[in-house]
Amino acid sequence: MWTLYKQEVYKLIKKKSTLWITAILILTEIGAATISHLWPKTLPAQMMFVSDFHSAILVVFFSLAIAASTITMEFQYGTIKTVLAQKYSREYVLISKWLLMLTYTLYLYVMTMVMALFLKLVLVNGQFSLVEKGWKHQFWQDWLAAMGAHFITLWVLISLVLLIATAFKTSSVAISVGIIGYFVLNLTSAALFSVIAKYPWLKWNPLNFLNYDHQIVAEEFSKFTKLTDNQLLLGDIGYIALFLLIGILIFRKRSV
Amino acid sequence: MKDEILVVKNVNNFFGRKQVLKNVSFSLSSGRITGLVGANGAGKTTIMKTILSLTPYAGQIMFEGQPSTFNDHPLLNDIGALIEYPSIYPFMTGMEHLRLFARGKVQSTGIQSLIHMLNMEGYINSAARGYSLGMRQKLGVAMAFVNNPKLVILDEPMNGLDPQSNKELRDLIIDQRNRGVSFLISSHILSELQKLAEDLIIVDQGKVVRQTTMKNLLEANNHFIVLNTSDDKKAQEILIAAGYYLVSGEKVRIKTDANFDIAEILTNLISENIAVHDVKHEDEDLEGSVLELLNTAN
């Protein structure tokens, strides 16, 4: 298992895109923080900081793309035969890829958050304080909670993308579903909430659970989702487990 | 018969409703090179994939006496393989591929030795996206050997190799065989396989038609005596009249068996004043034997 995980990390490090993604995220944060520094009234630093200076949405896109390709590239290059022709079970092969994604997404979040803190101190330190009142607690606590919720919500999408990549073996389908899923929620949330208001049992559908990161930031969302923060958290974890489990069931019998 | 390293017993395999392997049974002797021969679609690659647990199957596979199943196959730790075409990550160099799959710290000297034996020094540190078919094939072969396996499975390993590379691969296989490594090799280039394989498994339409040794198969082949005489046409008439079976053509080509007597043939001709300038022996090759066997099976 450890060997498989090391192999996955090795492959990720050798991809040029891994370096580029880090560079793009850092440059995006520097750019957004600089704009906020120059035009604080147009783009308030505190609002920008909550989304790690606009890097959070890029982290979603990059994570979904890497999640899809970590599985589909093996089929595309035929390397799945070499990976599977080792002594390890198929479950371990797939779990090592999940662990890679967990490591990679944690890296992206920690890296962008540390960078956001650094840019706050260097460029926009005077505009707000981390210990001032946030929307629930102190601002830094709310920021960490928002990032945590964003991470969990992203993982619902990642688990779905990993499932689709395992089932269809093509990156484009998997990435499309993940990104469309992300946007569809924002575009159709009004319609979704009105349907939930009419049929309360629909609040358990997975799209509603993608509102967790919104609800953490804006408490009034619970009126529409009809779920508490804890229900959303546990539901997200449940859906992540379900999607990953279905992926294993498909993968364990696949002929390559 | 030496110890059996791999035993395959009553293995069946389906692609959807189509049965592609039908009660396949055979065994591989330890430290020997076994050729897997058959027409396209006969099931050679599927047999190899089944041993490697790349495709689900029903039946029994034992490696060094230990059972192996689709989901539990520790035997693969001791098997190296190249199946269909080399599996290459284009963004990595050849060296990085070898390091990726090499186990343990003792591998670095082994990797260098493989690179040297396959003459890959010139490009092993370049990105694999720029490799030619032959370079990829060599890298795939090197990856199969990288963990000092006890059994190596090679599916069409000569694909895309030039004559020099072919020889390097042949030398590597023989060197490893001499160190006790067992091989299962499929190839369409039967003349190459004839130079390597000691045992043979011949498959047709998902079944094992025959398991034999190369020596036995070739010994059972047709043998010919080809004569160069002062009057080939007359010599043909004399020999046919004497009861010999001649292959039609301009040359005096006599089909013989193991008990033929060259002196008797020469006496027949000399007594009729035909001078014999040259005598050659010809044996049917592996290709002829396999084709004949497959035709008989059908």
UniProtKB/TrEMBL annotation, chain A:
<keyword id="KW-0472">Membrane</keyword>
<dbReference type="Pfam" id="PF12679">
    <property type="entry name" value="ABC2_membrane_2"/>
</dbReference>
<feature type="transmembrane region" description="Helical">
    <location>
        <begin position="56"/>
        <end position="77"/>
    </location>
</feature>
<feature type="transmembrane region" description="Helical">
    <location>
        <begin position="232"/>
        <end position="251"/>
    </location>
</feature>
<keyword id="KW-0812">Transmembrane</keyword>
<keyword id="KW-1133">Transmembrane helix</keyword>
<feature type="transmembrane region" description="Helical">
    <location>
        <begin position="173"/>
        <end position="197"/>
    </location>
</feature>
<feature type="transmembrane region" description="Helical">
    <location>
        <begin position="98"/>
        <end position="123"/>
    </location>
</feature>
<protein>
    <submittedName>
        <fullName>ABC transporter permease</fullName>
    </submittedName>
</protein>
<feature type="transmembrane region" description="Helical">
    <location>
        <begin position="143"/>
        <end position="166"/>
    </location>
</feature>
Automatic annotation (TrEMBL), chain B:
<dbReference type="InterPro" id="IPR003439">
    <property type="entry name" value="ABC_transporter-like_ATP-bd"/>
</dbReference>
<dbReference type="GO" id="GO:0005524">
    <property type="term" value="F:ATP binding"/>
</dbReference>
<keyword id="KW-0067">ATP-binding</keyword>
<protein>
    <submittedName>
        <fullName>ATP-binding cassette domain-containing protein</fullName>
    </submittedName>
</protein>
<feature type="domain" description="ABC transporter">
    <location>
        <begin position="6"/>
        <end position="230"/>
    </location>
</feature>
<dbReference type="InterPro" id="IPR003593">
    <property type="entry name" value="AAA+_ATPase"/>
</dbReference>
<keyword id="KW-0813">Transport</keyword>
<comment type="similarity">
    <text>Belongs to the ABC transporter superfamily.</text>
</comment>
<keyword id="KW-0547">Nucleotide-binding</keyword>
<dbReference type="InterPro" id="IPR027417">
    <property type="entry name" value="P-loop_NTPase"/>
</dbReference>
<dbReference type="InterPro" id="IPR017871">
    <property type="entry name" value="ABC_transporter-like_CS"/>
</dbReference>
<dbReference type="Pfam" id="PF00005">
    <property type="entry name" value="ABC_tran"/>
</dbReference>
